[in-house]
Structures are given as C-alpha cells and as structure tokens.
Amino acid sequence: MKKIGVILSGCGVFDGSEIHEAVFTLLAIDRQGCEAVCMAPSVDFPVTNHLTKQETGEKRSVLEEAARIARGKIRDIKEVTAADLDAIVLPGGFGAAKNLCDFAIKGAAAAVNPEVARLLKEMAAAKKPIGAICIAPVLVATVLGKDYAPTVTIGTDSGTAAEVCKTGAKHQQCPVTECVIDHEHKLVTTPAYMLATRISEVCDGIDLCVREVVKLM
To answer: What is the DSSP string of the chain?
Structure first.
C-alpha cells in the first residue's frame, strides 16, 4: 500500500492544524487506497482560546496535540525520511504558519522548523509529490521557492500571494473547489478555508488535491 505522509501542526484552526482540513485529508487518502502516515514536530507552541481567539499564556506540544487528530497513531517528524513515503500532504490551519514556520509573523523571511524543511527538501529531491492545503503552501514556498520556483496557490488573497512570490515561488489564483498542479515539481495546492464559505467546498477541494497527488506518485 502506498504511504502518504500528513504533516500536522497541532489541533485547532487558530493555533494548530485546521481540524476539518486534516480529517478530509485523511479521508481522501483512505478513499484512494493509500495509508496515511501522520507526523508532527515535537516542539511547544502558545495555546489560543478558540472561543476568544486570544492566547492563554499556556504552551502545549505540537506532537501531543496533533496526536488527537491522528487518534494516537503519529510519529515524530524527525524519525521520518522521504524513503518512508510515496507522497506528503500538509493541511492548513494557523499552526502551519505559526508552529511549523513563522510565516504568519515574518512573511517571506520566515524560518522553518528544521525537520519540516529537511523532509520537504528530501521529497522534492526524490521527485515525490507534495500536496499543500489552505495556508500551508506558504510553508512549501518558503522551503522550496529559491531552488525550484514552484507554482502554488493560496486562493486569491493578494497580500499573502505577494509574500509567496518573494520566496521565489510563483502564485496562481484558484477557486476553492479546484487545485493548482505544478507537474514539473509534482506539487498540488488548494485554497480550502482561505476561500471557503461552506465545509462542503473544503471537502471537495481537498479530495481533488489528494487525488491529483496520487496520480503524480
């Protein structure tokens, strides 16, 4: 069975992985007859109260929180290499831009978690497909933009798109239920909640994204 890595960034849209996007990703992978390999870095992050949208002052482990979505079946990303996977997908949520990197604060000048950057570079060098959802394409652009100049989408937000282009990547506008495919670099991206107004739109876009990732394997 083909294995698709899923990089999670916590649990919850405002400080981790967007839960709908993560679950739809896992569902789409299963429907394609593939095995999802969930992973996350073992680092701490500031917790956000999802009712008030304010930070609580508490810190939690990205890996431990992501384990909630993975039902406990998760690996520390430092233990995973490209040789273990046939493809990889990154759901969105603010955690992708706050916990896996600091794009939310620094834009194109962001630093990326070293283990996340390592694995993405390994996948690109091995010419194995990468999928990225919602805000997660900014992370891929930050890691691969300079060396590969890939084409990605975050939907239609001009400010975020401008920062993406500063990384060396190219941005292409895209409707929520569709995806952008960079065939040369085996990279598939879709806007999800960057544009979605309905949960069904998120599901449709992610399902298409994962299907296209599988086609590229």
So the answer is: --EEEEE---SSTTTS--HHHHHHHHHHHHHTT-EEEEEE---EEEEE-TTT--EEEEEEEHHHHHHHHTTT--EEGGG--GGG-SEEEE--SHHHHHTSB-HHHHGGG--B-HHHHHHHHHHHHTT--EEEETTTHHHHHHHHHHHH--EE---S-HHHHHHHHHTT-EE----TT--EEETTTTEEEE-GGGT-SSHHHHHHHHHHHHHHHHHH-
All structural domains of the chain, each given as residue ranges with its CATH number in brackets, are: 3-216 (3.40.50.880)
109-141, pLDDT tens digit by residue? 999 999 999 999 999 999 999 999 999 999 999
Would you name the residues annotated as active-site residues?
Answer: 134
